[in-house]
Design brief:
about 200 residues, two-stranded antiparallel sheet, mainly alpha, 2 domains
Length: about 200
């Protein structure tokens, strides 16, 4: 909630600081360097720099295991010698840096940016994407974003699409608490266990 409040403060600042942000006209004609105009190069740059590969490497590093231990049980993590505050601050810095990189890539992809990108609806869209895909998975954000985009494009043709989308999200969260990726992973593990039990018999 504090993050959402802070984002609204930043949104108000951006809206009122028209001399820098361009007011309602926004900032236009912002394009990447000449070596990155091709869509294929831009895709791989986004894949690597945007955080997926970096996050995957980080989560399987000692820092990633310390971060997971801190998330699951702060007391047990501290008892094993992990400096919880340092781990949390480092995670905050990494998340902020990756968010900043994602923002730059987003601006380059469109060539412009406007203050409405900091609206409360955009913040909620990010949370919905994570919940739909799965909170504790790296691929959850990608799957959630693809699902959200495809469903939203289809539902916007209806009159009460916001209501239908809200009910769909609530249903997914209630039925699949771990998100799409997490639920499929658990289903795969259960099927694997059933097959193992059958083979042992």
């Amino acid at each position: 909630m504090l993050t959402l409040v802070f984002s609204q403060l930043v949104s108000s600042l951006v809206f009122q600081w028209g001399e820098v942000t361009g007011d309602d006209d926004g900032l236009v004609s912002i394009w990447p360097a000449k070596w990155l105009p091709d869509t294929t190069a831009y895709y791989y740059c986004t894949l690597a720099v945007g955080g997926i590969l970096i996050l995957r490497h980080t989560t399987h590093s000692p820092f990633g295991y310390a971060l997971r231990a801190t998330r699951d049980s702060a007391r047990q993590a501290e008892a094993t010698g992990i400096n919880i505050k340092n781990v949390q601050w480092m995670a905050f810095v990494i998340a902020g840096a990756l968010a900043e990189l994602a923002g730059e890539l987003f601006v380059f992809s469109k060539g412009s940016i406007f203050h409405d990108e900091l609206s409360i609806s955009k913040s909620f869209d990010a949370l919905i994407v994570v919940f739909l895909g799965g909170v504790k998975t790296l691929s959850g954000a990608v799957v959630g974003a693809a699902f959200m985009k495809s469903v939203k494009d289809w539902l916007t043709r209806m009159e009460y699409w916001r209501l239908i989308l809200s009910l769909l999200i609530i249903a997914v969260v209630i039925i699949a608490l771990d998100g799409t990726v997490g639920s499929l992973r658990k289903l795969g593990e259960r099927i694997g266990l059933i097959r193992e039990e059958e083979s042992m018999r």
